[in-house]
Amino acid sequence: MQTQAQPQDKEIQAETEIEVRDLEIRYGAVAAVGPVSFSVPKGKQLTLLGPSGCGKSTTLRAIAGLEKPAAGVIKIGDRNMYSSAENLNIPAEDRGLSMVFQSYAIWPHMTVYDNVAYGLKVRRKNREEIDAGVKRALALVQMEAYASRPASQLSGGQQQRVALARACAFSPEVLLFDEPLSNLDAKLRGDMRIELRELQHSLGVTSIYVTHDLEEALAMSDCIVVMNKGRIEQSGTPYEIYNYPRTAFVADFVGSSNLISGTVREDLSSGNDVVIETQGGELIHGNTHGRKRGSQATLSVRTVHLQLSSQRPAGDRNVWQVTIARSVFLGDLSEIHVEWGGRKLIIRRSALDRMEEGQQVFLSVDPNRCVLLEDDAPAA
Ligand SMILES: Nc1ncnc2c1ncn2[C@@H]1O[C@H](COP(=O)(O)OP(=O)(O)OP(=O)(O)O)[C@@H](O)[C@H]1O
């Protein structure tokens, strides 16, 4: 019997630090967000991921106190920061949190030291506390050597480190990040991603991170909330979101997938597997998920999970003979297009094993790699 691997749900049993409940945000008559609900356990990082305009920044700004919601509750620690029922909206500066923006927002005319000291001065710390706080924060981002340099004489990556140091200097309970790496070049982004994650871990600070960059979200988060058109499509660990998308939107947005629609034909008596009749032929999927015979179903199959081989693979389940229509070299990977059941399937595989256009090959997929979606994608 085929058993479908269970999602690795190691999600943290820690106490909740941030709770967002039935939050709605409007601009005039237009509903920009909501209702959305999610929570972040203490010391963990949650990422709001989604395409441009889906409402990520608006949600984050409401948590920061920079946007007044229309309804719902925002709770940090044991205090309500916003509650429509209580007509409560605590000002941003009293929420005990710090925010790092895409546009560093550091002052170019000030030195690095003064930039980092600013938040401590505003909080009326004494000279010794300010000095200790600045030194600790600069050490965290490895910028001690630049303390006396004007901020205008720093690279983009260094400026973003200063912005981070400034955000961490007064040891906030909560850190909010709004696309903090998107002004940096690809290489620096990759490095900063790791540094930021280590920083978040070492401080043990609870954080919410906004990005539209999938890799960033997968690499940096304890939990991802995927948003679309102001609503939550799915939330879970990076592993769950990537391997078990529930909707066509998530399957498509989080990594590249082939969406294949068909009709549930029969359960195999040997186990839980289900046969879906598609235009390309029978596709066997590893778990029924309660689908009834005759119902419409859409399977998501990741482009990296479809296999191509010149020899027929062992077994006869989910194996077809196809012709390579296109082969696109992408460096580490090649993207191969094949025609299957009157539609194009895309396969991503190592570029080392070359396949030529026009070549006849065998296409196969493990039934457990075909994920049944909860909604139906447009017929393909
Ligand atoms: N000040 C505003 N007035 C009116 N509508 C707004 C305002 N700010 C945002 N919106 C709208 O609210 C929706 C959500 O915007 P938001 O900036 O939160 O999206 P986002 O997911 O963060 O996108 P991006 O990644 O492009 O920043 C969008 O439709 C946007 O046009």
From TrEMBL:
GO MF: ATP binding
Keyword Ubl conjugation: no
Organism per entry: Candidimonas humi
UniProt lineage: Bacteria, Pseudomonadati, Pseudomonadota, Betaproteobacteria, Burkholderiales
Protein name: ABC transporter ATP-binding protein
Taxonomic superkingdom: Bacteria
UniProt domain ABC transporter: residue ranges: 18-254
Keyword annotations of the record: ATP-binding, Cell membrane, Membrane, Nucleotide-binding, Transport
Keyword Transport: yes
